[in-house]
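Lab manual, section 2.4: Encoding a predicted structure.

Procedure: take the sequence of the chain (194 residues), apply the prediction step described in section 2.3, and record the output as structure tokens. A sample record is shown.
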Amino acid sequence: MSKSSKKNQDAPQDEQAAEISEATEATEVQQEVEEVVEDFKDKYLRTLAEFENMRKRGERERISARKYALEGLMRDLLPVLDSLEFAASAQGDADAIREGIEIALAGALRVLQSHGLETIVSHGEVFDPRVHEAIGMVPHDELEAGRVAVEHRKGYQLADRVLRPSQVHIVIAPEAADSAQNDANSTDSDREEP
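Recorded output:
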């Protein structure tokens, strides 16, 4: 056999070996890619599961917090209830009953203030529609018009939120009070004439 014919026989074998080598490399690369994909898929599924567990845990905590949000306040008000029950069961002496109710009232106010409740100061203050509810107008000798003369029901706020506005009578200017009185008198006299 000549060198050229041996070369010709070796050429197909070299080509076959190269193809096998390339196929092997491609298979190895494909396996590596599949491993990386599986690794990312596994990490994704784990992260998704962790996220879902965190969401469920957060939901349980939110429900629990809402359910027991007032627990501290309720526990603090129990002695006030005890005082009221004691005052309600007291017999005879009106002064003792009144004293028991005043003690319970002071205790309730102290508990609510410790939880952030604030009483809205009204008497003598300038009328503020954000914290006051005007239910009438009255003349007053010592206070100027537009100020609160009488507080009928206390108002309360929690932090910066008004829970209940104070119901108040506002001071009216003396001339406006006279005019209102004259209008009321003339309306009454109009009704009396048949």
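Check your result against the sample. The chain has three domains: 1-69, 73-112, 116-194.
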